[in-house]
Amino acid sequence: xxxxxxxxxxGCARGVxxxxxxxGALGAAGCTGLETASRPTAIPEPPLTLLASGPLELPPLCxxxxxxxxxxxxxxxxxxxxxxxxxAVQRGCVEDALVGWVETFRYAPLASETATTLDWMAVxxxx
Length: 127
Fold this sequence. Notes:
By secondary structure, the protein is α+β, with helices and mostly antiparallel strands.
């Protein structure tokens, strides 16, 4: 892209226009090269695909704490089954219900066993 800039010294006007044209072309070529080199790679698919799960059932009088996040760690086997489900911190009625729920999960088969974590929080709203 060539731009005309008024230059007071008559002998410099042509040199400035050529310099700006060359600089613009180099800048455009550099930007194109950077654009190609820094293209993000495709994001891989998530390794776990949940196929089925049972219902989450909390026992009567078992109330999750307001704003608490309950974490359950578990392993998904190559066959897509869950094993070694356990609460990350402490055990209580909510944690026991979450472990029972996670144990109902069935995943698509995997290339290798995968350790993972489920974070759960109760959200209550009035109607």
